[in-house]
Amino acid sequence: MFSKDLKMTICAAMGTALLPVASVAEIDISKLPPPSSKPGLTFEKDIKPLFEKSCFKCHGPEKQRGKLRLDSLEAVLKGGESGKIIDGRDSAKSSVVKAVSGLDEDTAMPPKDKAEPLTTQQQGLLRAWIEQGAK
Q: pTM of the prediction?
């Protein structure tokens, strides 16, 4: 496993805490909230409002830490300087889900002093949206 100092160094070098590979691999995905059963989720209607509330301060139209932008579907699917944040239809492997879950406090998004974290229900919506094809 990697030390906290190494995780912090990786994050600093990448300019973001969202996608340090060393930390993402350590998360116990069995602790993620289950995907929502709500059908027909869309980015504009269901996911963008979540990101707007909790993520736009650092990953929105005015600022993009780690070159990651979350204010459009195209930008979300593109990812940031560390690569894609959505892994196909597998939400448990998607780094954005792992980051917003807060299961690793070193890489939790958003940082505690920046915005309110996504609730368990909101995390479930994000997981379901990804598993439904991220449309």
A: 0.81
